[in-house]
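The material for today's practical consists of a large collection of protein records. Backbone structure tokens are a discrete shorthand for how the chain folds in space. An example says more than a description, so a record of this kind follows:
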Amino acid sequence: MKSSCAMKGAVLAVVVLLLGVGGALGQPRGVTLRLGWVSELGYQHTLGPGFIEGGVGVPWMAACPMVTASYNYVPWTFRNDAGGAFEPFVGGGVQVGTFIYYCGASRYEVYPVAGAVVPIGFQFRTARHFLFALSWRPMLGAFFGDVRPVWYKEGLYDGGVTLGYAF
């Protein structure tokens, strides 16, 4: 009797897992290249009335890695006759990474940096699945120095152009 219940539970778990994976793979998604203050390689996945976006990149003229994750809400979609779609978006998320501080005399210090990001912009998807987006994604955060957290004002500069492919 116990093995029958365990088998039913295992079959149910496999069915739920397959339905979840199938549902996730059935959603539109894309790979992107963002060129801005933080240039990054990213991934988009449609979720509800918006999309989740994640990326790994480096700030302009710096060798310090940054990781970004956000949910971007799409309030409406404008479709054209050629099969393309224009979508404004606004969202929120987090960004973490490192900040390299030049101390002079070829000496550098590396500090962790973290904060909230607030992306706002629009994207256009063509009928052939190409993505083009313009956005401003300020980071409101701090880098954590030796004594106290310091406002990371460079995070406010993150405007960018995104090119990608949806599949």
